[in-house]
């Protein structure tokens, strides 16, 4: 078993410890501490945890630890339904813009499939052959290959878990400028079509939101940080949704459009009611009318903006801009 090339968390270390002792018995606490690059006290705590969880550890006559012959880690047991759910999750992950996430999803799916019983594997293969997610996504996936977003999610998730600062070059389209930011990562959030980093921005001395597709360069620093003691990601997002900058928005969707719109609407829907003509009226609060106006274009004439007037005007202007592109073009 190769030596770990990075520090492991406790769960990873316990799993690796069992595998190591099964493959190389009679290792002393000093051997194990050197192997995992931790203290002997940590190793003793890990061994006690394994013993208390039912792993049959013994101390060999030769002076090292070993696991009684015949013990095996519990196999991965999934029902057909559970396997289908997990593999469907990997299929959705493969739709992400970050190519590294797609590669990891492929690897996970392959490993899970390899340990499934043959009847469950046949069931899954049949299901996957007859299930298509985003059938027109292949061209987009090819365009995203080698994108600047590649690897950012994983790098930021590592920095987030290990509480390491990151230094980034960030592009702000409204000012058409790039700035260098030192950020303490506090959370990762996925909206309808992109990932966002929530972090403490040392330049602005405030907690800010950064879109991953606008990060031009990223480097994880060795310096660690302590998150604010009172910071809660879900509470922060909820408060942001209740920001005084938010505007009340009322939209009316045709039934066929609402089925899809409600899955990607960029806020919590405060009220939803069905009108006499079959349309759905949705009310929510959001601070960026420009974003909502562009988001609404995908629904064409299946959506109507009731309020606010600023959103009606922005939506109308965008629609007219699209129409003007085709002025003078023969049908």
What's the SSE blueprint?
Layout: H1 10-23, H2 29-36, H3 40-52, E1 57-59, E2 65-67, H4 80-93, H5 99-114, H6 118-129, H7 138-144, H8 152-162, E3 164-172, E4 177-190, E5 195-201, E6 206-211, E7 215-224, H9 233-241, E8 247-253, H10 255-264, E9 269-274, E10 280-286, H11 289-296, E11 303-307, H12 309-324
Antiparallel strand pairs: 1-2, 3-4, 3-7, 4-5, 5-6, 8-10, 8-11, 9-10
SS class: alpha+beta
Shape: extended
Q: Tell me what the CATH architecture of the largest domain is.
A: 2-Layer Sandwich
* Main sheet record: 5 strands, antiparallel
Strand order of the largest sheet: 6-5-4-3-7
Mean pLDDT: 82
Can you walk through the features of this model?
This protein has helices at residues 10-23, 29-36, 40-52, 80-93, 99-114, 118-129, 138-144, 152-162, 233-241, 255-264, 289-296, 309-324, and strands spanning 57-59, 65-67, 164-172, 177-190, 195-201, 206-211, 215-224, 247-253, 269-274, 280-286, 303-307. It has 331 residues and is of the alpha+beta class. It has 4 domains: 10-67, Arc Repressor Mutant, subunit A, CATH 1.10.10.10; 80-144, no CATH class; 152-228, SH3 type barrels (Roll); 247-324, Alpha-Beta Plaits, CATH 3.30.70.240. Strands 6-5-4-3-7 form a 5-stranded antiparallel beta sheet. It has a 4-stranded antiparallel beta sheet with strand order 9-10-8-11. A two-stranded antiparallel sheet has the order 1-2. α4 (80-93) packs antiparallel against α5 (99-114). It is extended and about 90 Å long. The protein starts with 9 loop residues before the first helix and ends in a 7-residue tail after the last helix. 16% of the residues are buried.
């Amino acid at each position: 078993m190769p030596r770990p090339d990075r520090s492991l968390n406790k769960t990873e270390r316990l799993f690796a410890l069992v595998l190591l002792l099964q493959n190389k018995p009679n290792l002393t606490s000093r051997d194990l501490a050197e192997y995992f690059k931790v203290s002997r006290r940590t190793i003793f705590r890990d061994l006690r945890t394994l013993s208390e969880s039912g792993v049959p550890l013994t101390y060999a006559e030769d002076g090292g630890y070993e696991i009684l012959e015949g013990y095996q880690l519990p196999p991965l047991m999934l029902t057909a339904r559970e396997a289908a759910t997990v593999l469907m999750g990997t299929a959705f992950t493969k739709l992400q813009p970050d190519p590294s996430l797609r590669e990891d999803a492929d690897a996970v799916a392959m490993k899970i499939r390899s340990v499934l019983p043959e009847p469950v594997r046949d069931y899954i293969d049949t299901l996957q052959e007859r299930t298509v997610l985003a059938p027109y996504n292949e061209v987009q996936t090819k365009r995203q290959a080698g994108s600047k977003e590649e690897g950012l999610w994983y790098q930021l998730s590592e920095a987030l878990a290990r509480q390491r600062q990151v230094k980034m070059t960030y592009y702000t389209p409204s000012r058409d400028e790039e700035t260098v930011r030192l950020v303490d990562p506090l959370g990762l959030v996925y909206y309808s079509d992109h990932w966002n980093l929530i972090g403490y921005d040392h330049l602005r001395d405030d907690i800010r939101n950064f879109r991953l597709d606008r990060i031009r360069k990223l480097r994880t620093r060795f310096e660690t940080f302590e998150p604010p003691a009172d910071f809660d990601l879900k509470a922060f997002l909820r408060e942001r949704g209740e920001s005084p900058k938010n505007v009340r928005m009322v939209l009316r969707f045709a039934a066929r459009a609402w089925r899809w719109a409600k899955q990607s609407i960029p806020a919590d829907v405060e009220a939803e009611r069905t009108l006499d003509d079959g349309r759905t009226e949705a009310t929510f609060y959001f601070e960026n009318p420009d974003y909502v106006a562009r988001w609404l274009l995908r629904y064409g004439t299946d959506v109507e903006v009731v309020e606010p007037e600023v959103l009606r005007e922005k939506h109308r202007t965008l629609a007219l801009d699209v129409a003007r592109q085709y002025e003078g073009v023969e049908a």
